[in-house]
């Protein structure tokens, strides 16, 4: 009797018995040099499933909080990506690059020695609040169906329209001077879709010397900050997954419902509004189990995603 057939059948049985990992979030402290896709690939291997995604891309140069969803939690990611984010950044004044960060080619160099600290603070203040921001040419925004960065790297001049974003806070934490260069450390809290590279570029332009981003660390995505983020090495030792119910309760307003209402929402029905705002809102059953994400429409709430079987 061939042993090959027996071994194959055993492996097939083992694969059939393999259970999916629990649904939830992994809060990763992304290392420099890794793409967000690299992190997703690593988490697929560690969690033992291909059903993994992330909320909000981080450039390879950047480090910090990357929210990864596993199994059913991938359905939360689009909503989590829209939450407020926090960053620590360093901006170098006097040097302009074609990517608006340190990974690009230098386009121009100008002495920033004459830029006073007061001018830096005034420039930062002007970029705080609701603003119109032109994304970097090397960005993932699609232009006529193609990513802007692909066109830019092919040598094409990409015209991107300014978009409304909100910079909730833009605080200078240090100004360092070395010869003709000025480096500005800053802490930024902003809406989804805000490019910190563009803030660096626009600050430099406003000061008349140009500028680019030299370092970026994302400190927060919604309620998830560096205090709960874990490095790749830590996750390789213990791939801790934050359960769905805890993840939703931390990120969104909570609505607790009765057994009858739980059955209704489980079948995609609408419930009376609880007055918690537009949404998303997490709906929980009498036993504390997560049932759905909903949004309010007038006097009712409508399901965005239902998680009950």
From TrEMBL:
CDD domains: PseudoU_synth_EcTruB
Domain of life: Bacteria
Protein name (Swiss-Prot/TrEMBL): tRNA pseudouridine synthase B
Its EC number(s): 5.4.99.25
Source organism: Sphaerisporangium album
Sorted UniProt keywords: Isomerase, tRNA processing
The Pseudouridine synthase II N-terminal domain, residue ranges: 44-196
Function noted in UniProt: Responsible for synthesis of pseudouridine from uracil-55 in the psi GC loop of transfer RNAs.
């Amino acid at each position: 009797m061939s042993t090959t057939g027996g071994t194959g059948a055993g492996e097939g049985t083992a694969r059939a018995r393999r259970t999916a990992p629990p649904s939830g979030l992994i809060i990763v402290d992304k290392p420099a040099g890794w793409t967000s896709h690299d992190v997703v690939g690593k988490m697929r291997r560690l969690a033992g499933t291909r059903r993994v995604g992330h909320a909000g891309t981080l450039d390879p140069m950047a480090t910090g909080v990357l929210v990864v969803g596993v199994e059913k939690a991938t359905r939360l990611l689009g909503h989590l990506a829209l939450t407020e984010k926090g960053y620590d950044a360093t901006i170098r004044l006097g040097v302009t690059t074609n990517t608006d960060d340190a990974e690009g080619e230098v386009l121009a160099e100008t002495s920033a020695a004459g830029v006073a600290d007061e001018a830096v603070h005034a420039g930062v203040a002007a970029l705080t609040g609701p603003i119109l921001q032109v994304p970097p040419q090397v960005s993932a925004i699609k232009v006529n169906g193609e990513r802007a960065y692909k066109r830019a790297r092919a040598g094409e001049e990409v015209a991107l329209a300014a978009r409304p974003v909100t910079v909730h806070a833009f605080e200078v934490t240090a100004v360092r001077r070395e010869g003709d260069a000025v480096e500005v450390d800053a802490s930024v809290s902003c809406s989804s879709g805000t490019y910190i590279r563009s803030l660096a570029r626009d600050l430099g332009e406003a000061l008349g010397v140009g500028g680019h981003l030299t370092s970026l660390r994302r400190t927060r995505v919604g309620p998830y900050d560096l205090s709960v983020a874990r490095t790749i090495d830590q996750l390789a030792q213990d791939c801790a997954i934050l359960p769905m119910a805890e993840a939703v309760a931390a990120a969104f307003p909570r609505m607790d419902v009765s057994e009858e209402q739980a059955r209704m929402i489980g079948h995609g029905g609408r419930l009376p509004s609880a007055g918690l705002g537009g949404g998303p809102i997490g709906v929980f059953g009498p036993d504390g189990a997560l049932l759905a994400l909903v949004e309010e429409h007038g006097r009712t709430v409508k399901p965005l995603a239902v998680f009950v079987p």
